[in-house]
Design a protein that fits this description.
Length: 211
């Protein structure tokens, strides 16, 4: 069986088996309304998927993390990107969960935080107050390499103007682990990256996750 055909079969099985996972009460009150997920399989010499509710970013440096990663935008809060950012800093926030005001500089950078301890809105507000252009919140389940969750508003009435994006836990732990191993607190990234029309086999996916 050729590689493109195998990838197409895996992709179809993934779409048939994956179910959206709601955020837990520790983060926000889960949305009880229906959620629509629309997927389009486009035709090309290779099989590829277009996820309408997904964003992508790529790490440029360090080289050991130089892959393209999938994100999910917050369901009902946060802003959108007004442009694509090239070679911008993505900084590990301190404190790591972002439940208090950030103590390190994320000004004009993407803040990288962990899920847990407070609502997604609180984390996003703290990143925004610190001058971040966007916030990526990685799942605290380090083994999660396939499930995206819906980050929902916490009903406190607080506005979030920057993009707030969810990252799977496996990607999150690998990014943090590699940066800390090299004594770094930031990576250089391009965000968002348009993958529409890019074959799955040609997208530079992390070797530890499948999307």
């Amino acid at each position: 069986m050729s590689r493109p055909v195998f990838q197409f079969i895996i992709a179809c099985l993934f779409l048939a088996s994956t179910k959206p996972t709601a955020s837990t009460p520790d983060d926000e009150e889960a949305d009880t309304g229906p959620t629509e997920y629309r997927y389009e399989i486009a035709s090309s010499p290779d099989a590829f998927l277009v996820y309408e509710d997904s964003y992508y970013f790529e790490i440029v440096s360090p080289e050991s993390l130089s892959y393209t990663y999938k994100l999910r935008r917050a369901k009902d809060f946060g802003g959108d990107f007004d442009r694509a950012y090239s070679k911008v800093r993505m900084v590990l926030g301190e404190p790591v969960e972002g439940c208090r005001p950030l103590t390190n500089s994320v000004h004009n950078a993407v803040a990288f935080l962990l899920r847990g301890g407070c609502s997604f809105v609180t984390k996003s507000n703290n990143a925004e107050d610190a001058g971040a252009i966007a916030v990526i919140i990685a799942d605290n389940d380090e083994e999660n390499d396939e499930h995206m969750i819906d980050m929902v508003d916490d009903a406190t009435g607080r506005a979030v103007r920057i993009p707030s994006l969810f990252l799977m836990g496996k990607d999150g732990v690998m990014i943090r682990r590699h940066l800390l191993m090299y004594g770094l607190e930031e990576a250089i990234v391009n965000i968002p990256v348009n993958l529409t029309g890019v074959p799955i086999g040609k997208a530079r996916q992390p070797p530890w996750t499948l999307w």
